[in-house]
Amino acid sequence: MVNLELANASTGKRAGAKLIDLGIAWLLQLVPFALGAASLLSLSGSRYPTSADQQALLAATVWYVVGGVLGLALWVFCWAWEAKTGKTPGQAMLGLRTSSLEGFAPGWGAVFVRNLVFGLICLIPFVGVVLALISNAFDPNSKRQGWHDKAARTFVFDVRAGRDPLTTGGINGPASFAPRPELPAVQEVASPMPVRSPAPVTSAAPVTSPPSSVPRPDRQPSAALQPDAAVHPDAAVGQTRFSRAVGERAGAADEVVLSFSDGRRVALRGPVLVGRNPAGYEEETVQELLAVDDPGKSVSKTHLAVWSDGSRVWVQDRRSTNGTRIVRGDGGSSPAPAGQPVEVEAGDVVHFGDYFFSVGRSRA
């Protein structure tokens, strides 16, 4: 059976792959550098160099240049290979792949930044190399990113323990290459995230009119969903009101479901706010508040809002610190402008900080 889940590379495998890459470079340069050193050892040591000494110096220079050229050629080859395929020699041997945040080839710039930051960490006396090799162990988000990964905005996946996103459609690959079974009705599904609601949210109440905070298809969201430009995403805001009525029109054939990166699924029945400790604007009416456990604070307190008007689904970045990015089902991606609603469709993936969720529909 094919494993359709993504598996983050372990610290041991990541370190092993990097050591293999460094070992190959050292071995490739060992012979010419050793021959250069042997030529220097053959010098007579006389105050006046002989013709033999001059030949030895020339030979040493040539061998060192050859070693340098071989090392540079290997580095360029590994740079290009990882940029286009996500593989280095060590990663190919251990079954690892480097990818962008969307799950595709990282590209030349990301690999350059990744290697540059790794090299700078190695300059720390005594412990630099060790810290660079195990830095992902300090990542509270499933240990999936080292310090150089965070700088380059890359991931490293174990394609032997899970699927290879680079060849299976990126982070949201299963939606594009494997049929999903029809999902049962999710009317009884409650948010698995902490909900700061004074009372449980139910879907039993009939809908007579959509909440004032939900945009109609022919207009932009109401002022309740449009943030004040002066409000910081981590600032305390006004009292949030909770609606007991579902946000979608009654009798809808499909129900919107948000599938989060940790496997949680949330039925979207009204406007929801997502963040570390989300809160609505003054008198804003929402379905619920979805709190994300993010010790690294890559997610703002109130990072984004998601809602549906029955026929379309909208995402609005609440002027977050790290922004929100939409990855479309066809692989294209673009940032969500702060404070502006962006329409998303089934199969799209919304990245916010170090987290993401995909948008889907289930038959009600």
Structural description of this entry:
The strands form four sheets. A six-stranded antiparallel beta sheet has the order 5-4-15-14-11-12, with no helix packed on it. A five-stranded mixed beta sheet has the order 8-6-9-10-13, with no helix packed on it. The chain has a two-stranded antiparallel ribbon with strand order 1-2. The two termini are 29 Å apart. Residues 175-224 and 245-252 have low confidence and may be disordered. The longest helix has 35 residues, at 51-85. It is built from seven helices and 15 strands. With 364 residues, it is α+β, with helices and mostly antiparallel strands. The radius of gyration is 27 Å and the shape is elongated. Helix 2 (51-85) packs across helix 4.
> How much is the radius of gyration in Å?
27 Å
Pattern of helices and strands: HHHEHHHEHEEEEEEEEEEEEE
Unreliable runs: 175-224, 245-252
Structural class by SSE content: alpha+beta
What would the average pLDDT be, to the nearest integer?
79
